[in-house]
């Protein structure tokens, strides 16, 4: 590792623990004998282009410490997709600030940004280490057991279903169905987490729809009919990115972001939950409701899992340690070291940035039921240690 300064940024959608990773990077870098100054990019890579960099040596240590308990992205985020004309001015700024260590906290697109910037610097004779810190509530990053931010978002979903499911059960003479939509463009980890809310047979949710499985209208309607006949109401959870058999989104939105990702329900489009609501009302004549919480799953600090904060902070620390050891071109990953029946334990590993940037991690087949509309015990064994214990509500006999 060549001694110099370091730069850290946040990108993409936030989580309730992304600032814990930032604190891990900053606190470790401030103590490093190989890093002189640690700068923060304001609004992701745009901060480099606009020369809006925060010198963390001027930030009170108590503020940095408190970042661990602060949701959203303290430095500000960005979804700028780098173009060829961006690289020369970025490298110029990196040289001006003597940046030899480049850290970013984010998902697939962020890892692609790190990889491209470091490769460009290398091709232009600028020695610089680039290490990514994994982050996304979607939990779809390649190479890691789970991503910081997912456990807390999963708990948000599970608690929401535990409470809204209780409401739906008691209001079934008024509303015969309820649909809860989670974020998650192409992976079903978050809608699947709703299953952790079940404590007894018949508890919500009854049906879970995943982006990994094509939405089959007739099979869905038949299961809804049977479930309603059995329980008197139907609780449904869907991922925002569920698609029809031809690959088109169930959501009516055709809007995409700068990376070409569909923005479900954006720009006045219709969400998947709204489409399903209309479908059930038209088919059965029932009254029901839909619940779309959008980005609240990414910033609900009141539902943050302590384990999530600990691992997010640890990922930030590990990124600096890897850079000190001369590692580059990798993302810090979380490795589960305990088996199914043991108390949960984890450590850290790495995955190549090039692979993370170009791969997604959908729900494995053994986590989804045969009919494609529920989870298996294997998934619950995976997710329950991450979510933690949920409250138990009494019910009248």
From TrEMBL:
Diphosphate binds at residue 13. Its EC number is 2.7.1.90. One of its GO terms (cellular component) is cytoplasm. InterPro entries: ATP_PFK, PFKA, Phosphofructokinase_dom, PKF_sf, PPi-PFK. Residues 7-272 form the Phosphofructokinase domain. Catalyzes the phosphorylation of D-fructose 6-phosphate, the first committing step of glycolysis. Uses inorganic phosphate (PPi) as phosphoryl donor instead of ATP like common ATP-dependent phosphofructokinases (ATP-PFKs), which renders the reaction reversible, and can thus function both in glycolysis and gluconeogenesis. Consistently, PPi-PFK can replace the enzymes of both the forward (ATP-PFK) and reverse (fructose-bisphosphatase (FBPase)) reactions. This is Pyrophosphate--fructose 6-phosphate 1-phosphotransferase. It comes from Thalassoglobus polymorphus. The lineage of its organism: Bacteria, Pseudomonadati, Planctomycetota, Planctomycetia, Planctomycetales. The gene is pfp.
């Amino acid at each position: 590792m060549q001694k110099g300064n370091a730069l850290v940024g946040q990108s993409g959608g936030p989580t309730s623990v992304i600032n814990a990773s930032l604190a891990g990077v900053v606190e470790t870098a401030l103590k490093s004998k190989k890093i002189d100054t640690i700068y923060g990019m304001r609004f992701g890579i745009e901060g480099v282009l606009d020369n809006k960099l925060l010198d963390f040596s001027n930030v009170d240590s108590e503020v940095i410490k408190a970042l661990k308990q602060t949701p959203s992205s303290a430095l500000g985020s960005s979804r700028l997709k780098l173009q060829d004309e961006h690289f020369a001015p970025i490298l110029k700024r990196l040289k001006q600030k003597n940046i030899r260590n480049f850290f970013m906290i984010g998902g697939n697109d962020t890892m692609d940004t790190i990889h491209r910037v470091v490769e460009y610097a290398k091709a232009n004779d600028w020695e610089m280490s680039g290490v990514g810190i994994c982050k996304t509530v979607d939990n779809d990053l390649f190479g890691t057991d789970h991503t910081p931010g997912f456990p807390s978002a999963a708990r948000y979903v599970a608690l929401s279903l535990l409470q809204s499911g209780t409401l739906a059960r008691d209001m079934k003479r008024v509303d015969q169905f309820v649909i809860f939509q989670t974020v998650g463009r192409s992976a079903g980890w978050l809608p699947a987490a709703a299953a952790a809310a079940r404590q007894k047979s018949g508890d919500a949710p009854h049906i879970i729809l995943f982006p990994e499985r094509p939405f089959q209208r007739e099979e869905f309607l038949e299961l809804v009919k049977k479930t309603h006949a059995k329980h008197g109401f139907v609780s449904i959870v869907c991922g925002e990115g569920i698609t029809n058999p031809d690959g088109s989104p169930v959501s009516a939105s055709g809007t995409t972001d700068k990376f070409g990702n569909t923005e479900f329900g954006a720009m006045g489009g219709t969400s998947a939950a709204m489409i399903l609501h209309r479908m059930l009302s038209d088919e059965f004549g029932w009254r029901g409701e839909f619940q779309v919480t959008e980005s609240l799953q990414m910033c609900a600090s009141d539902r943050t899992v302590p384990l999530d904060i600990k691992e997010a902070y640890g990922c930030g620390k590990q990124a600096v340690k890897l850079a000190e050891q001369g590692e580059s071109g990798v993302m810090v990953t979380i490795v589960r070291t305990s088996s199914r029946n043991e108390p949960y334990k984890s450590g850290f590993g790495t995955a190549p940035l090039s692979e993370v940037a170009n791969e997604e991690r959908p729900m494995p087949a053994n986590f989804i039921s045969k009919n494609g509309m529920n989870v298996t015990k294997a998934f619950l064994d995976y997710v329950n240690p991450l979510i933690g214990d949920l409250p138990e509500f009494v019910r009248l006999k």
